[in-house]
Each structure stands twice: as C-alpha cells, then as structure tokens.
Amino acid sequence: NAGVMQNPRHLVRRRGQEARLRCSPMKGHSHVYWYRQLPEEGLKFMVYLQKENIIDESGMPKERFSAEFPKEGPSILRIQQVVRGDSAAYFCASSPRDRLDNEQFFGPGTRLTVL
Amino acid sequence: KNQVEQSPQSLIILEGKNCTLQCNYTVSPFSNLRWYKQDTGRGPVSLTIMTFSENTKSNGRYTATLDADTKQSSLHITASQLSDSASYICVVNVPGAGSYQLTFGKGTKLSVIP
Q1: What would the DSSP string read from start to end of A81-99?
Q2: Is the pLDDT of residue A106 over 90?
Q3: I want to staple B21 with a disulfide (CB 3.0 to 4.6 A). Which of A35, A89, B75, B79 is the partner?
Q4: Which chain A positions have a beta carbon within 8 Å of B98's beta carbon?
C-alpha cells in the first residue's frame, strides 16, 4: 500500500530553467494539495486539485507557477523561469476527499535548488 | 504575525527523558488541531488530531492537550527515544470554505541524545 510518491526527490536548476515536480497520490485518493516550505519556515498552502480540476490556487504565485492533475497520471507542479527564491521543499499531500476529518497524507517532498 | 506559534524553537533532551512542546494559535474558529512529526528530509506524518471540543488525545508515548479558551496546545513525549529526533509541527484547520487549507507552525526541532 504505497504512500504518496513524489519525484524527483532532489532537483537542481539554473535560473531561467523550468522545474517539473510530480506527485502520485495514494491509491484511491482523488484530492491533491501542494505545499511549499521555505528554509526555517512552516509549510504554506499553494494549490488544491481534484482530477482535471483546480479547486483553489489562492496560495500559488500568479506568474510562473502552474499545477495540473490530469485524468491519468500524476499531478504536476510546474515552475517556469525559476529564480533563486524558488529554492524550497515542495510537498504534495493527498486525501480521499476534503472533509475536515480526513487526514492529508504527505509525500517525502521534492527539494528544489536554484543555482 | 504567524497564526500558529510554537516554542521552543529547538530542544535537546537525554534519551529516556520526557518533554513538552508548546503551541499557541490565534486562528479562530478552528475545526481541529493536529500535531505532525517531520523527520529530516521527509514529509510530515500525523501524530494526533483533536477537535475544538476535545482536550486530550494520546498516541502511544505522545499525548496532546488542547485548551480552546487560552488557545494553547501542548505535545508531551514520554520516555523519549533516539528515533523521536525530528521536527514537531502544530497545524490548525479552519472550518468552512477552504477548510482543506492547513495553517502550519514553524515547528520545534527536537534532538534526543544518548
């Protein structure tokens, strides 16, 4: 019973390149959440997706960032033209539904370093 | 100002000793308060979850308490083990629209030494 999978675990990009982070939710989970953790900070909500739908992207920067959760395949968080300030750990979580009493299960994270 | 404040920032204790971590929150109202354990390089893992009407919840050697009047929570770890070394994060969940949005504290970094 695999948990939430994220890859790559570590990603190094030069300024101006694109970063693609992938998240496969737990089996049976149709809700995906992305969080960002800057150094010495708590996790911050970015975006909430269900299959083929973005439900809430209020925590995601308006420019350069996008997310998708296609009908088939993993959820993707895409960062275009990365800058040094994008260096952070990006965590994905999944749940079977968004009710308050439903646990969000976190993946191991992708650590993005922008040179 | 962060809506969830944790103290201390870091803590070092000897193996076998007990410790208590604190969480003060200003988020109100809230649906539930959770404590997570985050090992270095890993994602957070849930330890306890309490609704506003609960005042204590245990999970093995971990016991969380909640005082909704003072907006304080604590996580008590008994008979600490080396594997307890991790960051412990207090998380508050607000009801209503956007209830899936969790508000995280910065965590307390616990080091258990032999």
Answers
A1: S--GGG-EEEEEEEESS--
A2: yes
A3: B75
A4: 56, 58
